[in-house]
Amino acid sequence: MSLDLPSPPTRVDLASHACDTCRQRKVKCKAPRVPAGVSPPKCGRCDRLNLPCTFLSPSRTRGPKRRTRGAEPAASPGATTTITTNKHPTDELWDRSLFGVIMQDYLDYIYPLVPIVHRPSFRQALRENRDRDDQGFRALVIAIAAVVVATMPTRFQVYQSYNPPLQFASRREMARCCYDRIMGLRDSTYFDQISFQKFAISYLLYATFRQLGDHNTSRMLDVEATQIARLLNLHRISEYEGLNCIETQLRKKGFWLILYGFVHNQLQNVLGERLSYLDPILLHSINPEDLMPLEVDDEMIFENEVVMSPSPTPCLATGFILHSRVFWAALRSPCVETPVEPCPCVRARDPAIQVAYLQDRLQSLRYLLEHIPQPLRPWRPTDETLDDATGDGTMTQELRSHFASMRANLHVTHLWLQSLLIDQLEAAQSHLQGLSVVADSYPQTTTDSKALWLVREKLCRQLLFVLYSLPLVNLEANGLHLACKVRDIAASLLACPFHPDDPEAQRAAEYLQQSTDILSRLDSSESMSTMHLQTWVDTDRMKK
User: Fold this and answer.
1) How does residue 273 score in pLDDT terms, banded at 50, 70 and 90?
2) What are 524-534's pLDDT values in tens digits?
3) Is 70 helix (H, G, I), strand (E, B) or coil?
4) Per the record, which residues fall in region Disordered (predicted)?
5) Burial of residue 338 (number of CB atoms within 10 Å: 0-12, 13-18, 19+)
């Protein structure tokens, strides 16, 4: 007779190296075993709880911990022995496992919009704990941590709930601490040698304080980043000779990142207090195609070669390139074969030339994004559409999120730049009372205030369409910049030229209400916006 014995319990394979979250929570990690060199997927626990799952923290040797060098043995059984683990200079700022989560959050949320590192090299440096001995890399990761916290308030709240938690009361407090720590790593010879890494540190700090609304500090850091960019000749393709493939790609991306700020200043420098990265002569000497990054992911770029895909498919670089083209179109014609455009001094003397110039910029921007890859189009594509667009049918959830963040950045910027140019066009047309210089191909840019207002209404309607089609986390990844652009576009509807009872005025009120609702969720700044106000104090002018 056979006996019905209970089946032996199913054996659960545990990972040889637990993920950072499970180690921090002190629970067993159920990550599947993978061959050496292969990035592990999310462990079962993190996947179920929707927690970040990273493997950046170093493994520690089992057994008794080493005594600190020079520490004497305990004199008695009750005496305390001083012991230490592998310490890192940043341990005073955050727990090491939390540091790994912050770095992963940069790669997950901020990198698609600020690709200022080479991902494989950056990950390798994190695995090697290079920040422990390399002061330059340490300053870089501290700056990255600062920009993550400044950009994403909800992640900061998550960091405060860790055990041990992040010991900062506010994002501004952490950003200033990071800034002080980075400044403490410099000496009087810091600028004797320059590098792209030093540019990246200055740019990230500039972006940090601009995200927080600390415009005085951000101005000064903008000047520092701009100066290093000029010394590195990021704007001169002839100076790229001798650089390896990784450095070339990084510097091209760096040029466009600094140009974004340049365009912001050109269109919004109300007080005239910001220094300029490029003068008109340099700007007209640049061929934008020469400085466009290669349309390929970092993983395909090595020091001595670039592995191009046999069939072009959208990648993160695709969104970055399109975003750069949008900014360039706000300044100059995207077609290098067009005649030389009038310089700012000529446009300032002749309002008719200025109007024609602004109309051309609007025309270029309006149709610039008509034929772009499906994952970057303004509407939210289905999973099947995304998979088909990449050609392999295996787009990961991470990549879908990256594209969503880039869609918000790309299309909100596209609409915002058009809104700013309409502001300038309206001002230029005020000098041309009764003069019609409007091209037939763009009839909206007329001297009729009502017709011009209808263009603004259309931009606002498109803006709301984009914002409501994207998850909040992908909007948040764009930081305070997005909220400011949304506010600028919506505010343009306040000067409605129609009677309050007209349908146009009622639609404007509805759009403003919807914009206010969105801004209440997007704008989580810790201080009042003072972008267009004088925020500095000239102590030599203060009355005694």
Assistant:
1) low
2) 665 656 555 55
3) coil
4) 57-87
5) exposed
